[in-house]
Amino acid sequence: MKIAVFGTGYVGLVTALGFAKFGHSVYGIDRDEEKIKALNSGKVPFFEPGLDELLLEVQGKGLVKFSTDGKEAVEDSEVIFICVGTPPLEDGRADLSQVEDVARFIAENMKEYKVIVEKSTVPVKTSYWIKRIMNLYREKDVGFDVVSNPEFLREGSALEDFLYPERIVVGVESRKAREKMEELYRDFDAPILYTDVETAEIIKHASNSFLAMKISFINMVADLCEKVGADVEMVAKGMGLDSRIGQKFLKAGVGFGGSCFPKDLRAFYRIAEDEGVDFSLLKEVEKINELRPVKFVEKMKNVLWNLKGKRIGILGLSFKPNTDDVREAPSLKIIKLLKKEGAEIFAYDPVASENARKVMPELNCLSSPYEIAEGANAIALITEWDEFRGLDWKKIKDNMETPLIFDGRNFLEGRKLASLGFEYYPVGRKPFGRMNG
Ligand code: UDX
Hints:
CATH class of the largest domain: Alpha Beta
Shape: elongated
Bound molecules: uridine-5'-diphosphate-xylopyranose
CATH superfamily of the largest domain: NAD(P)-binding Rossmann-like Domain
Strand content: 5-15%
Largest sheet: 6 strands, parallel
Number of strands: 14
Distance between the termini: 67 Å
CATH topology of the largest domain: Rossmann fold
Strand order of the largest sheet: 3-2-1-4-5-6
């Protein structure tokens, strides 16, 4: 099939390349000239495993074309995906102006029936507004359908999630559009749930909000565990063995970040509010998450006494491993708080330093974990990058002024580190190796 994808961010680019991998012919459209230039020269403008190779592969087969001009893409495609950004406004509601712009552009340029698919995460009823804009700007005899097909991919495993999804949700209101969507997803090995459009829109926000709720829940349990000397990892395991609860997304730590959970959570309770539904449960989820960095720094203070003048090494800046994304990253919030206390910060991340410096230009990013350990009073592990497990911790200890580790992700082996002489402070579990009580 011929398809067009408007927006080449995470969701858009993965969608474009993913469909091309299945043999569809894809146009990728973005107003950002730099991005399009990079993509046309075979470069993915952000870090995401597997995307570089796939870009070259589908470019080699002539299955994907990138451009800043979407005219040809609209005329030539049967199905058009809207994957542009829906950033949060001050009040937490989603800014849908880019969605409106694209809908208008499609309406003004289409000459025959099109299926328009919203894939960006949008609040319920966005399809109503897309339809309205289409109706205002299209030629009257040119038909269209609006479909909601939310994307559930995670950064760091985006391609995998797109190619092998656990489910595909398609909100659709006409047989014609449903047939097009069936054809598009024909070769995917996943259950497809067909619903009406509003239901599909709600599924996306409800899923992300529910996962965020699981994380905040376990984080509060972690706080309680810390107080009474219980072990949150075992509590999560014990809870998760109940298949009604499940093991996933019960990892306690410094809180969730990223471009989705914080934003979608707020957008969801805001839209509920607009509809007169008090979903304040989700406000609590948000509040708990916002306090995670604060509590983590308080814990450091309780161990280090004064933070003023202390040298602290930060391991990991991205909001989670395998991505260079620092949006809403707990690391940056923690660094800000530590700096406010007068601590001196040195950070290391395998790929996210450049992005971190864009938002925090004065941040000292060093090129190895051993360098941040040099003369440090403590190390705080904020992102659980695999490579941190295999570090030479003895060498790190020898480089440090005082051997303290705060593990914000319960990622390292406390017992082993204690045997090397470290004091090790996890989240929601007993510390190891603490000297004098
Ligand atoms: C999320 C959803 O998982 C995905 O389906 C949706 O399409 C977009 O939002 P993403 O933001 O890429 O994906 O990352 P995810 O792996 O879900 O992690 C989100 C945040 O939660 C990270 O900061 C992570 O560290 C944190 N997290 C996750 C926890 O703190 N504990 C957990 O148990 C799981």
